[in-house]
Protein: Nucleoside diphosphate kinase
Amino acid sequence: MAIERTLSIIKPNAVAKDAIGAILSRFEAAGLKIVAARMLHMSKEQASAFYAVHQGKGFFDELVGFMSSGPVMVQVLEGEGAIAKNREIMGATNPAEAAPGTIRADFADSFTENAAHGSDSPENAAVEIQFFFPEGVCERTR
Ligand code: UDP
Structure:
């Protein structure tokens, strides 16, 4: 399988419960390397732009309000099949359907406040990485 990069966000509810370390540990334990990271508090405008694909949907305003309600931790994860691997570690979008032991099963508070984001395709990963890290990411040689 190819080495991929994916954009990961630890959402405001998981930051608020001090789960950053626990969540990053799960990525590293699964062989996903952190090649970029930053913490920021998104404005409503930034959150709307990031989730533009969902504009007009019933949950959009709640999602944008939540994502701009507090700081998020954003990172780029690199590894074999990183996009699918990250989504497997996160669990299903609806935490009620997330498998036991996944990030969303363990740290979500609701469908909207589901603790983590992960890119769902190579195309979206490229766009999302550029959104938060226009300066590029680190080379990990070891
Ligand atoms: N979301 C929501 N209600 C829904 C569907 C999605 O609140 O009915 C939120 C949830 O936080 C989700 C985000 O919108 O993570 C983006 O939805 P998407 O379908 O892209 O799921 P994801 O790729 O995050 O699993």
In short: The mean pLDDT is 98.
